[in-house]
Design brief:
This protein is 6% helix and 35% strand. The protein has 415 residues and is mostly beta strands.
Length: 415
């Protein structure tokens, strides 16, 4: 199916209502649904030229049905478990081909859910195998973002001890949308937090550009310590330490970085930033260029590579422009993904895979492509793809929010 025909299919699809809801969850602007899958890459070798036109992908269903899954992930602890984050407040474990009956963690009484709120992110400490620390991102009952730490039970490796809860950060949300939700540890061992601009439409408070707000930013904190006033430390190399700007800020100018990731081989940062009315974008910040340190991704001055506010003659000076953008004829809410670094499908090595919640199309590009580049359709599905995921071996997965299923990406070489 071509991208030109996607718009008509999305607007007439019976699942349009569900798509509108999921678009809210991801922070998009319009309705639609559908999807595609694509190849993977080897984790052991250096980045190689990836040719999206020479590979094909399919999706293999993973056991279980989940309640609005928004993430699938895995600690690199050798246990080969998959952890599925349900927006409604629970994290479920898939192990040895079965879904455990008891959740890893159950936070449903602490959260507000629906629309873009809920349990949105999960990250394992780099030393999780020995310290059992895990981090969550959720919207509390007041609608504000909470970043909290928990520890695994000393008597059950598949359960969190809720008594170990330690709240690191609470960020006030002025509106119910654009909460971000992604958290991950970078190659430097610090915790990165993706924050949306606080919501409404058009960023009325210009929070994404303001250095006095944590909204519309990538934040970076050190969870391995605390100060007299904070439950964490500020890395001394954060760009606004000793300068005007909040010390937690790593980069700014984001509308709603719903899903983003680090390339586990190169350390490059990839961000899927949900657009306003016209354009969706994928941003890439390489490790060589500082992995996005002090970067300005443009919003609300720009939407994609185009002026937004002001509508014309905006300044692009100092802005990081997206490596990929696409208009709302192809989708309405981008879902950022991962660079394939698995070993099972070497033909996918070095490919960056991403999707759109409304169209369900899975695209890919080469992770080493020059900016801007053209995305290639890998698979067209009927799913509301809310997230990609990566297991401990680097294999890739997608989550279907409306259907409640998890799928593994399978790669083949085209004849």
């Amino acid at each position: 199916m071509t991208e030109a025909s996607t718009r008509a299919r999305l607007l007439t699809r019976a699942a349009a209502t569900a798509v509108a809801i999921i678009a809210l969850v991801i922070g998009g602007a319009a309705p639609a649904a559908g999807a595609v899958a694509k190849p993977a890459a080897s984790m052991a070798a250096a980045p190689a030229a990836y040719n999206p036109n020479g590979v094909a992908i399919s999706l293999k269903s993973v056991v279980g049905t989940f309640d609005n899954p928004v993430l699938v992930t895995s600690p690199r602890d050798g246990s080969h478990r998959l952890f599925v984050v349900e927006q409604t407040g629970r994290v479920r474990i898939i192990t040895k081909g079965a879904v455990l009956a008891t959740p890893f963690i159950d936070l449903h009484t602490l959260i507000s859910t629906g629309g873009e709120r809920g349990l949105l992110g999960l990250a394992f400490h780099p030393s999780f195998k020995t310290n059992g620390k895990v981090y969550v991102d959720y919207t509390n009952t007041a609608g504000n973002t909470v970043i909290a730490e928990y520890r695994v039970s000393s008597t059950n490796a598949n359960r969190v001890a809720t008594s170990t809860a330690r709240r690191l950060l609470t960020i006030t949300q002025p509106y119910p949308n654009h909460n971000g939700g992604g958290i991950a540890f970078g190659p430097d061992g610090f915790l990165y937090i993706g924050m949306g601009d606080g919501g409404s439409g058009g960023d009325p408070g210009n929070r994404a550009q303001s250095l006095s707000s944590l909204l519309g930013k990538m934040l970076r904190i050190d969870v391995n310590g605390r100060t007299s006033t904070k439950a964490y430390r500020i890395p001394s190399t954060n760009p606004y330490v000793g300068r005007t700007g909040l010390d937690e800020i790593w980069s700014r100018g984001l509308r709603n970085p719903w899903r983003w990731s680090f390339d586990r081989l190169t350390g490059d940062l990839w961000i899927g930033d949900v657009g306003q009315d016209r354009y969706e974008e994928i941003d890439r910040s390489t490790a060589a260029a500082g992995r996005g340190r002090a970067a300005n991704y443009g919003w609300r001055v720009m939407e994609g590579r185009h002026c937004y506010n002001p509508a014309t003659n905006c300044s692009k000076t100092g802005k990081v422009l997206p490596i990929v953008e696409y208009g709302h004829t192809a989708g309405c809410s981008v879902t950022g993904g991962y660079v394939y670094r698995g070993v099972a499908f070497p033909m996918l090595k070095g490919g960056y895979f991403f999707s759109d919640f409304c169209s369900g199309i899975i695209w890919s590009i080469s992770s080493t492509a020059s900016s801007p580049t053209t995305r290639v359709v890998m698979l067209d599905t009927s799913f509301n793809i809310s997230s990609f995921g990566q297991d401990d071996a680097g294999e890739l997965y997608v989550t279907d929010w409306a259907g409640g299923h998890i799928y593994k990406i399978i790669g083949t070489t085209k004849p």
